[in-house]
């Protein structure tokens, strides 16, 4: 791997903005020949700097109009309990992200639902049934003026 020099950093920035950019356009933007650019992109992929490519979907059009950030505290701090909670979050389609964090609680979730009734059902029927959960604090997003997730 050649490392992250200024050109590789620029390649990564361009791909983060538009993962569907053609190699020819990418090469022109970063000042390389198409073959040199392709070699660098492949090296970045092999080196684990690029984990994949994905589409960014309009969740509102797909029926998920509300985003809720949920802080979850666990009652027991054993590995088996954390793993059981994580498996439950993997199975919950409303949970778009699950982060193990430091601080007063153990997890931060990004939950997307159609409406408040759907969130109430997730809160009661999913989080409310897990014996590991001792606290739930919900924060409803009013908007996302900056969101760089790809």
Protein described:
The protein is α+β, with helices and mostly antiparallel strands and 150 residues long. The protein folds into two domains: 6-46, Winged helix-like DNA-binding domain superfamily/Winged helix DNA-binding domain (Arc Repressor Mutant, subunit A, Orthogonal Bundle), CATH 1.10.10.10; 66-140, Lrp/AsnC effector binding domain/regulation of amino acid metabolism (RAM) domain (Alpha-Beta Plaits, 2-Layer Sandwich), CATH 3.30.70. The protein has five helices and four strands, in the order H-H-H-E-H-E-E-H-E. It has a four-stranded antiparallel sheet. The two termini are 24 Å apart.
Write the layout of secondary structure elements.
Blueprint: H1 6-17, H2 23-30, H3 34-46, E1 66-74, H4 79-91, E2 95-100, E3 107-113, H5 116-125, E4 133-140
Helix pairs in contact: 1-2, 2-3
In short:
This protein has helices at residues 6-17, 23-30, 34-46, 79-91, 116-125; strands at residues 66-74, 95-100, 107-113, 133-140.
CATH architecture designation of the largest domain: 2-Layer Sandwich
Question: Sheet with the most strands?
Answer: 4 strands, antiparallel
Name the CATH superfamily classification of the largest domain: Lrp/AsnC effector binding domain/regulation of amino acid metabolism (RAM) domain
How many whole angstroms does the radius of gyration measure? 20 Å
At the first level of CATH, the class of the largest domain is: Alpha Beta
Percentage of β-strand residues: 15-25%
Order of helices and strands: HHHEHEEHE
Q: Strand order of the main beta sheet, please?
A: 2-3-1-4
> Overall mean pLDDT score?
94
| Poorly predicted tracts of residues | none
Proportion in helices: 25-40%
Remind me, CATH topology of the largest domain?
Alpha-Beta Plaits
- Total number of beta strands: 4
Structural class label: alpha+beta
In total, the number of domains comes to 2
């Amino acid at each position: 791997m050649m490392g992250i020099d200024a050109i590789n950093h620029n390649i990564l920035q361009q791909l983060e903005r538009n993962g569907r950019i053609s190699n020819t356009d990418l090469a022109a933007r970063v000042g390389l020949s198409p073959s040199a650019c392709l070699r660098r992109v492949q090296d970045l992929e092999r080196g684990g700097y690029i984990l994949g490519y994905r589409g960014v979907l309009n969740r509102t059009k797909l029926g998920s109009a509300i985003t809720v950030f949920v802080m979850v505290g666990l009652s027991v701090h054993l590995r088996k309990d954390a793993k059981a909670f994580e498996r439950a979050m993997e199975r919950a389609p409303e949970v778009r992200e699950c982060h193990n964090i430091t601080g007063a609680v153990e997890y931060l979730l990004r939950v997307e639902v159609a409406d408040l009734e759907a969130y109430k059902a997730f809160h009661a029927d999913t989080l409310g049934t897990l014996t590991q959960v001792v606290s739930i604090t919900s924060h409803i997003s009013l908007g996302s003026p900056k969101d760089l997730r790809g």
